[in-house]
């Protein structure tokens, strides 16, 4: 990680854009489930020694997501861009031992969008809006004109990802039960216009992308899924959620099954929550109730850790958990592991 770039980004965001001085406020930061000890220590070093923050606190994104739902005992599945975290939270604390992290996440879904929806139509390279602009004529008609610009490779790649994500959120669907293309051939097509003017008619195949999240043999290939201790194969989100909960204390399991929450951009595919609840219910024995809670509006699922962070920061009880600059100067970053959730 380029920490010089991180410092520049934090200073630009907080000081220049938000107009806030680090020295005037305690800083609450989110961290991923698999954040390493060295990165946590470097984060504190940057906050206290570079920006001179009076106090800091690091909270895991899955725990903050549970706070955004108003729950302290949950099973949280956070589908981010590069990784997905599945973790039980009990009384606000993450149970790390049964938690898992998988690389099957937003980027994997975007790659499937390209492979399943675009490549069969002969689109190997995703067109971007950087190269085309829509021009309106005097008579009101429109046409596309190619721009004479040379954007950087990283900007082109970013714009291509944005196009794939837009297709994912506007076209891709998850069926509420196991999907078979032969059974649902009557499903009408959806139309999507690419930046270069080409129009795609996307039919039943738009359900195959979401199906891969529950049936990995459909297209995710040999992606590796790993937990915090041992490697294992991806079986579908519902199987891993069940395994995580069953790895917890038996007294906790029923409540965790009743309080499953999802967050992250990958979870906003329409009907993902309904399908997840259906698949989990089929795996559970009679008498065990499963509930996947929805967030309204759906955008709240993307922002759940941020919303949960605002909830946590507003609690008076957090006052006793802040890691202060004085504690940092006396003990270094070691005390952090005992104070942060």
Task: Give descriptors for this structure.
alpha+beta; Nucleotidyltransferase, domain 5; 2 domains; eight-stranded mixed β-sheet; three-stranded mixed β-sheet; 15 strands
Describe what you observe in this structure:
By secondary structure, the chain is an alpha+beta fold. It has two domains: 3-104 and 223-339, ATPase, nucleotide binding domain (Nucleotidyltransferase, domain 5, 2-Layer Sandwich), CATH 3.30.420.40; 106-172 and 185-217, ATPase, substrate binding domain, subdomain 4 (Actin, Chain A, domain 4). It has helices at 3-17, 37-50, 61-68, 106-118, 153-170, 206-211, 237-246, 250-258, 272-283, 299-302, 304-313, 325-331, 336-339; strands spanning 27-31, 55-60, 74-79, 84-90, 93-94, 100-102, 132-136, 142-146, 190-193, 199-202, 224-227, 231-233, 260-263, 292-293, 323-324. Strands 3, 4, 5, 6, 11, 12, 13 and 14 form an eight-stranded mixed beta sheet that branches. It has a three-stranded mixed beta sheet with strand order 1-2-15, sandwiched between helices. Helix 3 packs across helix 11 (304-313), helix 4 crosses helix 5 (153-170) and helix 7 (237-246) packs across helix 9 (272-283). The longest helix is centred in the middle third of the chain and has 18 residues, at 153-170.
